[in-house]
Amino acid sequence: MPKRQILLLTSSLYEDGTHLEHVRPYIEKILTKNNVKRVLFIPYALANCDYDEYTEKVETIFGKWGFHVDGIHKSPDQIAAVKKAQAIFIGEGNTALLLLQLYDEEIVKAIRRRIIDDGIPYIGSSVSPNVTVCSSQTANAMGVVCPGPFDALKLVPFLINPHYLEPNANLIDRRETFEVRILEALMVNERPCLALREGACLVIERKNATLFGPANAILFRKGEEPTEFPPGTNFGFLFDECKDVAVPISKFYS
């Protein structure tokens, strides 16, 4: 059985506007129980970003909690950096840009092995859940680049849609709502999609996936009405539900 220990955060900012503060207990718990001292940060999701500044921002936050942060971009051998990492954190930005950079640096397989086989903690914020799953097809934003296939890290077998918002009845043009975007993706993907509202936190351990946060999550299945689930729900049943649904393996996994 995979040893996965994954913390997926819909938002890095919520309500009080303090970066990651609303999910601090979950971050501290997953890192502390694994005796993590240093976190490998992957800053590749932001376009036109100074990776040093972005890493320093994360280092400032994690440093107050007793953890050191290393930016993967500073390593001359990024695969080696992943292999030595005690924990991995990927921040917010654009899904397609992030996925392309992960492929360009050839670290997709290395990350997957560290999380699935070795069981080191993985934390993904904002768009990062889109690359944690088997496919990035349910990303909300249009890609600013083309990463090639939609194949993502495949750390969990179902799909995720972060930042989910209900349609605004006051808008005249409501064609491309979050719900429509998900349903479009499910036309070509058989796997269920878990839509997470702002502030949500999904804690995944082995084959358990428990929802925490201020609001329900919505589960979309192809050809069925969406279903609401409250905080505290364990979505572990999705691991078994997805077991018999094929996921094409791209050349990047050869």
- Largest beta sheet: strand ordering: 3-2-4-5-1-8-9
Would you tell me the overall average pLDDT? 84
SS strand fraction: 15-25%
Number of domains: 1
- Give the helices and strands as they follow along the chain: EHEHEHEHHEHEHEEEEEH
Say how many strands there are: 11
Give the name of the CATH architecture.
3-Layer(aba) Sandwich
User: Any idea what the shape is?
Assistant: globular
Largest sheet: 7 strands, mixed
| First-last Cα distance | 22 Å
Q: Kindly report the name of the CATH homologous superfamily.
A: Class I glutamine amidotransferase (GATase) domain
Highest-level CATH class: Alpha Beta
Examine the coordinates and then state which fold CATH places here, giving the name of the CATH topology. Answer: Rossmann fold
Low-confidence stretches: 248-254
How many separate helices?
8
GO molecular function, one term: serine-type peptidase activity
Keywords: Hydrolase, Protease, Serine protease
InterPro entries: Class_I_gatase-like, Peptidase_S51
Protein name: Dipeptidase E
